[in-house]
Write a structure and sequence with these properties.
about 200 residues; single chain
Length: about 200
């Protein structure tokens, strides 16, 4: 029942004098694809293709193959029978082909360099963030080590405990022998050790 009512409402909305004002583009639906005059291409795949071409143009294999083609071209057009020659002595067609190759190679190389620059910029940004994190971690560890040093300043070390035990042992031995200078004071009551030296 509800779908029939909905279709009737739609038909009434599109019919009549106000149909032109009501047929606006709906925002809750995707826009229908428009036909384009210019061809479309994926910039990422085009960039990858340009990088491959630029890498090939920068190799020795390309230079060798281009040299071989030019030598064969010149030899054929000089030594072949005149009916089979397609480019006579000034080699205008060869010049045109080399100019065409250079006019395509230069933008492809520039596009590959731009993509490499973008990658380098992203890598530099990531390195900068990593360096900032490393500096922050180093500062945090430095503060923690300083806090541990301050805390260790109040902890009894092995050497200090050993010296205190030696002092107590010496006092006990002197008491046993009977010639202790501080006869009325027990060795533990007497101020000694780290606290005395710290003051």
């Amino acid at each position: 029942m509800a779908p029939e009512r909905e279709t009737a409402t739609r038909e009434r909305a599109t019919s009549g004098a106000t149909a032109a004002s009501r047929s606006r583009a709906r925002l809750d639906q995707p826009r229908p694809p428009r036909r384009r005059i210019l061809p479309e291409w994926d910039p990422e795949s085009f960039g990858r293709l340009s990088e491959r071409v630029a890498r090939f143009l920068g190799t020795g294999r390309f230079i060798v193959w281009m040299t071989v083609v030019i030598i064969l071209w010149v030899v054929w057009n000089v030594s072949a029978p005149s009916g089979l020659r397609f480019d006579e002595y000034p080699f205008i067609f060869l010049t045109l082909m080399l100019s065409l190759q250079a006019s395509y190679a230069a933008p492809l190389i520039l596009l590959a360099q731009n993509r490499q620059d973008d990658r380098d910029r992203v890598n530099l940004e990531q390195d900068r963030k990593q360096n900032e994190r490393s500096i922050a971690d180093t500062e945090y560890l430095t503060r923690e080590i300083a806090a541990l040093r301050i805390g260790l300043g109040e902890v009894a070390t092995r050497d200090w405990i050993r010296s205190e035990l030696q002092d107590v042992l010496r006092d006990l031995e002197e008491r046993q022998n009977g010639h202790h200078p501080d006869r009325g004071v027990f060795p533990a009551d007497r101020p000694s050790g780290r606290d005395v030296h710290d003051r």
